[in-house]
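Thread amino acids onto this structure.
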């Protein structure tokens, strides 16, 4: 029985990496035929992720690149500076993603991917993997679900859901709103909700200015503390190319 339990735990631990490798191989095979490279960069006053600050309220420099094939398979890498608890010595984050995105019906699109969070400078094991899926309608409304067997670098599972919408006022101004709920019962015996509202102004292609108001419920404060959760305003200048 012990061997059976160990085997199950071993398979559970390697499942995200196996999925990552399989999808990555498919992505590389697709992009070898026809690929498009794109990128993004941002300077933000605060790196806020799912309602909580990742830089303790300090500024962050962020950039990413994406290679996508005509078949819909893609791979991307994105990075930012972070600031966690001092004993973690975490100062940077790198996100590696492989997945597939495309239309499944008129006005309907889907994106399924495997995302690996890496923290190169940390002295403790904070790395973890998440499986994600997003369903989009008319390019302006979306529902996302993310699941991980090692949520937030733990050894327990967690599920994140988000519902969002985008509203265009004119060619240069739009608003984006999203509400998320994070099920972390297995990790912290807790769960929390958060919401965000953004105003984005397209200054001049490819530059945009973004101001976002974030808010979480008391569950996030109990998990992460008052300094990391709660209400905050984030301002950023961003570009896509």
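Threaded sequence (241 positions):
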């Amino acid at each position: 029985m012990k061997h059976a339990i160990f085997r199950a735990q071993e398979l559970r631990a390697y499942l995200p990496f196996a999925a990552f490798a399989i999808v990555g191989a498919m992505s590389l095979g697709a992009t070898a035929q026809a690929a498009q490279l794109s990128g993004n960069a941002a300077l933000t006053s605060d790196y806020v992720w799912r309602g909580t600050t990742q830089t303790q309220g300090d500024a962050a420099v962020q950039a990413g690149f994406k290679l996508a094939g005509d078949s819909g398979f893609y791979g991307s890498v994105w990075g930012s500076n972070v600031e966690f608890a001092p004993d973690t010595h975490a100062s940077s984050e790198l996100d590696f993603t492989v997945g597939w995105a495309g239309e499944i019906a008129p006005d309907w699109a889907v994106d399924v991917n495997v995302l690996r969070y890496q923290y190169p400078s940390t002295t403790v094991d904070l790395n973890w993997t998440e499986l994600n899926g997003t369903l989009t309608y008319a390019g302006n409304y979306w529902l996302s679900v993310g699941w991980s067997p090692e949520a937030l670098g733990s050894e327990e599972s967690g599920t994140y859901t988000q519902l969002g919408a985008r509203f265009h006022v004119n060619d240069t101004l739009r608003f984006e709103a999203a509400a998320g709920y994070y099920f972390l019962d297995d990790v912290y015996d807790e769960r929390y909700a958060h919401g965000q509202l953004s105003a984005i102004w397209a200054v001049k292609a490819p530059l945009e200015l973004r101001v976002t108001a974030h808010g979480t419920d008391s569950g996030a404060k109990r998990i992460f503390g008052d300094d990391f959760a709660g209400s905050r305003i984030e301002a950023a200048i961003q570009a896509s190319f």
